[in-house]
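Ticket opened by: R.M.
Priority: normal
Category: complex prediction / small molecule

The reporter submitted a protein together with thymidine-5'-diphosphate and asked that the result be attached to this ticket for the collaborator who will pick it up next week. Submitted input follows.
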Amino acid sequence: MKKIKTTFFCQNCGHQSAKWLGRCPSCGEWNQCVEEEERVTPGEGSLGACFNEEPLSIDTITADEKDRLLTGIAEIDRVLGGGIVGGSAVLIGGDPGIGKSTLLLQVMQNLAASGLVVLYVSGEESARQIKLRGGRIGASSKNLMVLVEVSLENILRHIREMRPGIVVIDSIQTVYSSAITSAPGSVSQIKETSGKLIMMSKKTGIPIFLIGHVTKEGLIAGPKILEHMVDTVLYFEGDSGHAFRIIRNVKNRYGPTNEIGVFEMREHGLVEISNPSALFLSERPRGAPGSVVVPSMEGTRPLLVEIQALVSENTFGIPRRTTIGVDHNRVSLLAAVMEKVCGLHLGNHDIFINVAGGVKLDEPAVDLGIISSLMSSFLNRPIDAETIVFGEVGLTGEVRNVGRMDERIKEAARMGFNRCILPGTSFSETVTDTQMTRVTIDTIKELSGHLFM
Ligand code: TYD
Ligand code: MG
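Result attached by the on-call engineer:
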C-alpha cells in the first residue's frame, strides 16, 4: 500500500513544516498548525497536461485582445483590464458581508442576459437564499444556472456536462476533494481544488471566478500559492460603516494592476460610481484646518481624495500616531522631516490622519499632501479650498518629481480646482492646461508660503 505522506500546514498562511509548531514562524499566528495529507503524485494535478506540448512559433499562435468578454459593468471591465479573458482564473477576496456574492451575481446576471450560459456554484448558501438575493438585484435570466455543491468531483462533472460559458465558485474554501482526507478550507484542500479548477479552465477556455475568504489581516486565507496560481487577484475593500466599496486589482496577467473600481451598496445591489472624485470630495469641509485634496493615481486613473489631519498637543504619555488610509510609518517619517526641516515641533503632539471615504493611498506622491494637512492642523490655518498638492518628499525635505503629472492636473481642473502646488523638478511632461496656476516648490520649507490664503 502506498504510504500517505503528511505535513504540518499553517492554516493562516500555508507555511509547511515537518513537525508540529505552536507558533508559525512565517506569520506569527499561534495554534494554526494542522497535520494534513500531502499530495506527492503530480498526476492530474499538474498543469503540464493542459498546455500544448509541441513548441510553437509565437507568430503562429492566435490570440486577440478583442476576444475579451465584456460584463457590461464598466468599472469591473476596467479593473479586469478591459473585460474577461477566456480561460482565465480570477480570485476575488474580501471581508465577510462586503458584497462579493452580490457583485458576482450581478456580473453573472449581466452576462447571462447577453446570452452566455453561466454556472454559479455555491457552497455557502442554499438555492433559495441565492434566489432571494437574485430577487433584490434583479437576477432572473434563465441562462443563470445555480448549483449548490461542495464536492469538487461533482462540480467538475457538471462543468463537463453543461459546458457553461463562465463559472463562479462561491467560495473556494467550501469546496473539497474526496482524494484528500483533510477538511474543506484546509491548505491542502485549497491547493488541490483550486489547482483542478484552474486546470479545467485553462484546458477548456472557460473563465472561472473564485471567491476567497480573507484572514483577519485582510489577506486571502490559505496558501499564498493560490494567488500565484490564478491570473488575476481582486480585493474588495471598504468598511462596513460606509456604503462605498472599492474593488482593487492587485495582480493581473492581462492588464494594469492597482486599478480600482468604485461602487456603492444600495438597496438593489451594487451601483457603479463613474465619477469617484466627486463622491470623495462631496462632504469636504471648506475652510477647515487640516483638510487638503490630493490627486492620487489609482491604476491608470487619477482620483482626487481628501486627506484630513488632526494635530493636538499631548500633555501626558507617549504621543500617538494614528492613521487610516495611509501608511503609519510614512506619516511618522514625514512628521520627523517637518520637525527637522521646518522647525515645527510635532514631537509632543498626537497625530491623527484619515483619508476620507475609506480609500487607501500608498503612493509616495501623496507625501506633500500629508505634510500640508499636518502643517495646516498644527498651525490652525485652513488651506485654500481651490488648491491641490502633490509630490514625493525625501528625508532632507526636498520635493521630488512624481509620474503622470498631466493626468493629475487635468482631473483637478475638471473638478474645479484652479491652483496646484507641485514639485519644481518636473522634466519632460508638458502640462497643457492653462487655467491651472502652477506653483512649483523644491523643498518643504517653501510650502507654508504658498499653502495658506
Ligand atoms: P454578500 O454579497 O452576501 O457578501 P459576501 O458574499 O462578501 O459575504 O453581501 C451581503 C451584504 O450586502 C449584506 O450586508 C446586505 C447587503 N446588500 C445590500 O445592501 N443590498 C443588496 O441589494 C444586497 C443583495 C445585499
Ligand atoms: Mg458570500
